[in-house]
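Below: protein 1.
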Amino acid sequence: MRRTLIAVMTSCLLAVTACTGGGSPTPTAASEAEVVAWMDKVCGAVDGTVKTMADEPPIDMSDPAKLKTGLSDWLGSKVSAVDKSIADLKGLENGPHPKAKELAAAAQDGMGQVKTLLSDTKSKLDSSTDPTQVVTAFTEMVAKAGELEKAGADVQKKFDETGLAGSAQKASSCKGLQASPPPS
């Protein structure tokens, strides 16, 4: 269950920055180096969340209080990482590419969907009164994680539509994300 959630969420986050093929060439209004540097920042904004999502939640079924607290703390750290990514992406809306704002907004929306899932689950966990409710809330989150794949695909499509796939392939932070396989 833990690995499934992490794999799906990491795949979604990787899709936010995995830009392959397609797209029109970058306009000449900004130099290619400026666009690549900006893409590096966009991918870097997502990278913190990807790295944070890579750890597994502490699951100690022998102690219900520790289970609830551990999962709640784990989710809280993930929400904080997503918040930082969203804020960083917001700060990149005025990039050197004519569609920078559109692309940054699409990435923010994708990250917002991740945040909603994590926050909703944390709220359910925090209000739970028994271990069964804790496990149910976490299981529901895993079941909904598939919805995040669509959000990631939508963002990837936006990268391709804006013609930034080539620039992303040259940005080191984007390369690092593409090279990171999701956990199995």
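Below: protein 2.
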Amino acid sequence: MNHDRRDRLRDAAVAVLAESGGRGLTHRAVDAAAEVPTGTAKNYFPTRDALLRAVAERCLEQYRALASSLAGAGPGPADTEQLAALLAGLLRNVAGPGRSRVLAYLELQTEGTRRPWLAALLDPIAAGDFAAYAHLLRAAGLPAGPEPARALTLALHGAVPHLLTGAPDTLAAAGLDDLDRFARGLLAAVCAGEAR
């Protein structure tokens, strides 16, 4: 098996799923996006489930690489301002370079409602966020118990669809039109809630 070609096909499948949704994810569309001969994707991923699994595994690999790069950057943010800057950067990534990966992941979550095996494959991504954000809160010297970590994680997850659609009135109403201010406000709210 040609691993470079396999990765090229998986990256193309992520792009197709992000751009065209679940109905648009076909072997032929992946072949076209990867600029390979027709039938190549089907040779590597013979069924639709195999293609979905390939996309999920690629999203999981990309998520782990991103998490590893954050962990490798040192012990984590040293204070609230550094953590706010990190969170704002992560949110910018969602609307920028990470957009295709995040859109594909959301499409996979929808597919996972009908395919339990797919939901199980995706579970480490979302579950890992709770521990990761608890670690970041702790590193910044903020309350890092289960409740603040849950509140932070769920608020960030809730922001993602709005950032992806980019509707200006919604972004303004949610405070997502200024990601630095949003991240600082979110941390203040999470920490204030823990202090009660």
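The longest helix spans residues 48-71.
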